[in-house]
Write a structure and sequence with these properties.
Blueprint lengths: L22 E2 L6 E2 L1 E2 L2 E4 L3 H30 L6 H29 L13 H4 L2 H8 L7 H14 L5 E6 L5 H9 L2 E8 L2 H11 L4 E5 L12 E5 L11 E6 L11 E7 L9 H11 E11 L15 H10 L2 E13 L9 E12 L3
Parallel strand pairs: 4-9, 5-6, 5-10, 6-9, 10-11
Antiparallel strand pairs: 1-2, 3-4, 7-8, 11-13, 12-13
Length: 361
């Protein structure tokens, strides 16, 4: 039985069929549309898609402003020839980067809308686009950071296969893809609320080759102004019968209790949950008895988070124990993060990986 039969309405909890041509809850009856082929299982799906289209509109506007500024500066008087060439190349790189994103996202979302006062730029482009380059483009999709993440998870999983797996906040989806292929997942569901990562990841995992231009904001050599990458799943595509995409709230995954053997939270628990104990209760709820929660990521909390909830490793483990988990294995390491082969820039990050078993309820 496919895990798609365990999907529930995020508003009322009734069973819904995400494979239906028109996804309608039989109880509410809320309608759920799609962005591309991905179901939008959010409580107010129409409002959410409208916001994404407004964010796309704002991205277009800001991108055009950036191109105009760079072009104007390149036409200024008294510039070194090399400076003029750099500014023109940066304008072209920004233009190509925007064109690549807009072409893909307009098709999926239905085109940009005029932004509202509260639209805000999409985090998937502004903060997280480098995850897509790393996951599917750099080094032909064989970037060492991806391999290190898989090795860290493998170290806490052991010989047991993952079985039915939920990846919460999957983003660019490379870790979810690799875990599915390499660590014995039978079916994998990935959830996120950022279309600017998810739409592209879905296309790549289904077998498309997607062009995306990397255009760093700071240029130290003319050879690193911009470069188009071809994003592809070098180990081959995964079909929608075994790897399922859902736009959904990771804090309240829309699945029946006891659906999954494994829940994975990559780079998630420090950034998203404002109430970590409540989130852990939900993670335990969607797990089968004896199921596993695997976490991989740093503990970097939002700058406005109260210090009382900026938990250390020891506090996270205590909260997990109180939620009914037994920490099985764990490791931590500091390693390079998002180091671009184009610019040579990135950072060092401390990452915590652990596996926790859900004790009998």
């Amino acid at each position: 039985m496919s895990l798609e039969q365990d999907v529930v309405c995020p508003r009322c909890g009734a069973a819904i069929d995400p494979r239906a041509q028109a996804i309608v809850c039989p109880r509410c009856p809320q309608e759920y549309g799609r962005v591309g082929p991905i179901p939008v299982l959010l409580p107010r799906p129409g409002d959410q898609v409208r916001l994404w289209r407004q964010q796309l509109g704002l991205l277009v506007l800001r991108g055009q402003e950036m191109q105009a500024s760079l072009t104007a500066q390149s036409d200024g008087a008294g510039l070194l020839p090399a400076s003029r060439a750099r500014l023109k190349a940066m304008a072209e790189g920004a233009r190509n980067q925007l064109a690549d994103i807009v072409a893909r996202m307009s098709s999926a979302l239905g085109g940009p809308l005029e932004p509202s006062e509260n639209s805000g730029l999409p985090r998937g482009v502004v903060e997280y686009s480098y995850c897509l380059y790393r996951d599917w483009g750099w080094d032909g999709g064989a970037h060492s950071e991806n391999e290190q993440a898989v090795d860290a998870v493998r170290g806490v999983v052991g010989a047991c296969g993952l079985g039915r797996t939920l990846v919460v906040g999957a983003g660019g989806c490379r870790l979810a893809y690799d875990l599915h292929r390499l660590l014995g997942a039978t079916e994998t569901a990935v959830v996120d609320i950022d279309p600017f990562l998810f739409v592209i990841a879905e296309a790549v995992i289904r077998g498309e080759r997607v062009r995306m231009t990397e255009a760093p904001g700071h240029v130290h050599e003319m050879t690193s102004v911009a470069r188009p990458w071809i994003l592809s799943a070098s180990a081959g595509p995964l079909g929608d019968d075994v790897f399922h995409f859902f736009f959904a709230n990771g804090m309240a995954p829309p699945f029946r209790n006891g659906t999954f053997d494994t829940v994975v939270t990559p780079w998630f628990i420090d950034q998203v949950p404002t109430d970590l104990p409540a989130f852990l209760a939900r993670v335990r709820g969607v797990l089968k008895p004896g199921g596993r929660w695997i976490n991989h990521g740093p503990l970097i909390y939002p700058v406005d988070a109260p210090l009382a909830r900026c938990f250390s490793r020891e506090e996270v483990f205590e909260l997990a124990s109180r939620a009914g988990f037994r920490i099985d294995k764990w490791s931590s390491q500091s390693a390079p993060h998002l180091v671009s082969p184009l610019s040579g820039r990135g950072k060092i990050e401390w990452v915590l990986t652990f596996g926790a078993v859900s004790e009998e309820k």
